[in-house]
Amino acid sequence: MPVTVVKNLPAIEKLAQENIFVMDTIRAESQDIRPLNILVVNLMPTKEITETQLLRALSNTPLQLDVTFLHTASRTAKHVAESHLESFYRTFEEIKTKYFDGMIITGAPVELMDFEEVDYWQELSDIMNWSNSHVYSNLYICWGAQAAMYYHFGIHKKLLTSKLFGVFENEMYEDHPMLMRGMNEIFYMPHSRHTTVDMDEIQEHDELQVLAGSMETGAAIVRSLDNRHVFIFGHAEYDWNTLKLEYERDKALGLDIELPKNYYPDDDSTKRPIVRWKSTATILYTNWLNYYVYQETPFIANQIEKMKRIYVQR
């Protein structure tokens, strides 16, 4: 089944070229199916690239998804046309009376700042507070995961001694939890960050469970026991060349950037990077949508706020 988005979103054409089925809202309205309503809070400056990456990751489910993109009103986007935001995005004020089965909060290039110093922190806090009663399950990526870990559970991020940059091996710590059904016990995922969340602090919290990680990356995937919060501290959604473009950009700017680890064959940046994480993205997003959203969310969306949080060991 397809992902449904606003008609004429540029990502539709790009994904169609990859034989990925994305359906516009006009066609979707002719089908008598209750879609899952998914809200994507896109904090990335390169919004169109992130749109394509996330829609690709979401597209492998047999479920029909109605995806709404949201941008922050308290910060003016500099790397996307205003016409694009006006056509394909909504603000929190426009959607805050609605209910969503799932919400994704992306990463953002603000990790070296304290959370409260980020100019849209209050707005993002309002969105996360609102999600407690208006969203069934939330998935957070990289800085978005760190921000949500801090806001919902009071665990702060910490600065790394050097940037975690590359494709890293992660180990599954639990015995195939539903979120990771079908995944290998050892899997790969890109990371690109200067900060981390202390694994010991997460493990000491009685509402959280670390599902996967490693000595090098720390916690990679975490869930709350009620499955209402999923934290992915890497970027399973990344394209094959995302780290390449970041490396070349920083190098051109004269920044102190090391070659991404485990990415280029023979660490030769002239060779095409090896993709080791595509199945990780497919499984994570498909399982989240199926087990943590579709199987649990109420059919009548406005009943989300009435549902009790029942902790389940799965």
From TrEMBL:
Keyword field contains Transmembrane helix: no
Annotated pathway: Amino-acid biosynthesis; L-methionine biosynthesis via de novo pathway; O-acetyl-L-homoserine from L-homoserine: step 1/1
Organism: Veillonella montpellierensis DNF00314
UniProt record similarity statement: Belongs to the MetA family.
Active site positions: 142 (acyl-thioester intermediate), 235 (proton acceptor), 237
Catalytic activity: L-homoserine + acetyl-CoA = O-acetyl-L-homoserine + CoA
Domain of life according to the entry: Bacteria
Gene (UniProt): metAA
Protein name: Homoserine O-acetyltransferase
InterPro entries registered for this protein in UniProt: Class_I_gatase-like, HST_MetA, MetA_family
